[in-house]
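Changelog-adjacent note: as of this version, every example in the card shows the full chain rather than a window. The one below runs 290 residues end to end.
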Amino acid sequence: MRYYLDTTTLFIQGAFRAASTGSDGGILRVSTLMNHTVQKDVSGIEPVKELERVAAGAGISRDFFGVLTAVPITSLCVLQYDFITVFVTAGTETVPDTGMVNIIVCSSEGMADSTLLEMIMVATEAKTRALLASGYDIPGPSTNAIITACEGEARHPSSKRITAMRERVYTAVLKGFPEALRRSKNPQGVTRPRFFIFSRFNGEHWVEWTPENCPYYPCHFAGQRCDFCYCPFYPCGNESLGDWTTSSNHGQIWNCARCTLIHEPKVANYLKNYPDASLEELMHLKEKNT
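Full-length structure tokens:
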């Protein structure tokens, strides 16, 4: 999985098995997931055609799932909890055919179709609890949309008990909703998404990462670029850049501590200018300039 934003749209690309409650949803194999911001005056906009227009403009084929929001995409919150990444936009205004709360859950570990549907329920439970905690006494309008997606062979069968998958999705949505809601209520100065990672350093807690004033700079080499501290290709699985490591608590994890690819200034600049560039393209660029 990898993701990037333009001025109005979040694009998440990969080889997904996904379930969507959005327009033209269902369960499909798709290459792209989208959350697209529309203007608040949506009269005349047909959700499916609008998403098809956005996809065509980005050169994306029709195998995608998408949702619409009236919230600026810069208010997005991204939460990384081990193999789970959750993307949340939230707002308080109800606009026809757009989501007040849009949630996209991506897993780098595969799920059975029943588990994909179960994780929609888990995300809904967490969203409802967060809404109530934020002062709303209803779960939210029917225009909310949730997408759950996974890559790889199914490792997580459906289960009605507490599981690693369920815990991570619930915790990330519970954290992400109020953060995203605060950003949409106070949009002044909001120019980029917020990124949170679940850390176990000095106790389990959420940490917000920003590129400014990082206490670990330089973690690789002097003059490195930190625009992509958390790699948009993670876990890439390319064994020339990293390797799978057995964790004492969390099974197999992708260890890419030795990789400096996206910290190379020319590579970072290229990826900012061409956010849909492939990993192979960036590796070739680095080799050419070595």
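Structural remarks: The first helix runs from residue 47 to 57.
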